[in-house]
Amino acid sequence: MEHKRYIILTRVDIECDTPLKVGNGEKDLYTNSCVCLDENDLPYIPGSSVAGILRHELPIGDGDRLFGTTDNGSRLSISDARLLYDNDNVSEGFLNEWPESLNMFCFLPQRQHVRIGHLGAKEANGMLFNEQIVYAGARFRFEMSLISDSENQEPEMAKLMSILKGGIIRLGGGTRRGFGKISVVSIKQSTLDLTRPEHLNLYLEKSSSLKEEWKGWKDVNYEENGKNQKWARYILKLKPESSLLFASGFGDKEADKTPKKEQRIEWRYGKPVLTEAYKLVPASSVKGTISHRTAFHFNRLCKKWADEITDWKACVGASNKAVLTLFGGEDRNGNLRRGNVIVSDIYFEAKEQKFNHVSIDNYTGGAYPGHLFNEKVVWDKNLELTLDIYVEKVILESNQRVKEAFESALSDLCNGFLPLGGGINRGHGVFIGKMEVQ
To answer: What is the mean pLDDT of residues 389-405?
Structure first.
């Protein structure tokens, strides 16, 4: 049997640009979906999750050569991605000392979701759920080793790095709801020829620990491969024309409704710091709104008018071809189909304004008992939000009518005809903006 002669070792540090949810398939008293935890009850990313997304993004031939087939074993090994904390320390093995910076991971945040139907209300029982997530800004470290009998193996590793640095891939679950976007913080690498004694000795000196330094590491930088060939990117620059409310579902001491806020991690002097809560535009909310309007435009293009159709259920939700094609769902045969649209969460800082409301009795002209409430909304004339949406090109190119319906929905959003968030019948959520397609 021929032995592999060359090996490339790579250590990668990544940061979560949006929250991460790698589920363990379990639930508890507080959430319907828990994340994977290591031996210290800290979040981690299984190596299989990283390997799966990399193989999915590679062409079939390249994927088989790197990850193997039934006839040939894998040439690429990927470790679990472990949580980074103070000064490049890594959560692996049982920690003898518990630093204060890890306390933030003892109680992870949750996201609550509800499915809204075409009538503007919760669609069905069981459509309200919540899930545990890892803070945006959390960093993880993993290592890869690639073995080969050829000296020229750098191009293969370059393909993997370009995928990680491309800004397209998402790790974990809920990737179509805004979770799992990552960026590469640093890459260290070493190429060794194991037939050379000095390289072999250097390889034997390397520990499997992710936190231990090794004199063989060299900092490297891989450039992105330019324009993405698989995904079309829609960049929307949006300015609110009035107030904006993505509600948290909770009140505070001053108002019955408050904007959705979420803390995220920032790195200062090599240490993670949990910031004050940012305002949040959840990707799932934006995706749902665009999905409903896309269904409307697709029905319009197909000349399906409300006063003429007999089966309205065949025109909404996953029964609508444009919605099923772009956003996924359950088709008529009961098969689940994944969506082909990726939207990311938006974090921002902005001013708040409190509004008072009351329902008036048309007969007496007075207030209805118990109908007085107030809400805090975002009110900032200088605010501009950037919404990034990725769509698989093959989906848009295969059906021109679906593409036209989707772009018409985005055009409505930019022209103020498609409000976002809550309280839209009270004037909230109107945007004016520009759309760029890459």
So the answer is: 94
pTM: 0.90
User: What six digits make up the tokens of 381?
Assistant: 């004339």
Pairwise CA distance, residues 438 & 433, whole Å: 17
In the three-class reduction of DSSP (H, G, I as helix; E, B as strand; rest coil), residue 400 is classed as: helix
Residue 6 amino acid letter: Y
Instruction: Tally Cβ neighbours within 10 Å of residue 45.
Output: 26
Alpha helices in 302-435 (DSSP H): 321-327, 393-398, 400-414
Q: Quickly list DSSP for 156-204.
A: HHHHHHHHHHSS--B-SS-GGGT--BEEEEEEEEEEEETTSHHHHHHHH
Measured distance CA(144)–CA(159) in Å, rounded: 13
Give the phi and the psi of residue 275 in degrees, each rounded to 5: -80, 170
Q: What amino acid occupies position 384?
A: E
The whole-angstrom separation of Cα 51 and Cα 55 is 6
Token duo for residue 271: 């240490």
Looking at the DSSP assignment, which residues form a beta bridge with residue 349?
none
pLDDT, one tens digit per residue, over 48-86 is 999 999 998 888 888 888 898 888 888 899 999 999 999
Q: Where is 138: in which H helix or E strand?
A: none
DSSP string, 340-371: -EEE--EEE---EEEEEEEEEPTTTSSEEEEE
Q: Which residue has the tokens 């299984």?
A: 46
Count of beta carbons in the 10 Å neighbourhood of residue 340 = 18
Q: How many CB atoms lie within 10 A of CB 255?
A: 18
Which domains does the chain show, CATH number per domain? Answer: 6-219 (3.30.70), 231-437 (no CATH)
E strands along 51-164, which residues? Answer: 76-78, 82-85, 89-90, 110-114, 128-132, 139-148
C-alpha 177: how far from its chain's center?
6
| Residues comprising the chain, all counted | 438
Gap between the Cα atoms of 61 and 67, Å rounded: 10
Distance, in Å, from the CA atom of 143 to the CA atom of 363, rounded to the nearest integer, reads 72
Q: How far apart are CA 212 and CA 228, in angstroms?
A: 36
Q: How far apart are CA 315 and CA 42, in angstroms?
A: 45
- Map residue 30 onto helix, strand or coil: coil
Output the CA torsion 11→17→19→20 (10° steps). -20
120-170 pLDDT, tens digit each = 655 555 567 789 999 999 999 999 999 887 766 678 888 888 889 888 889
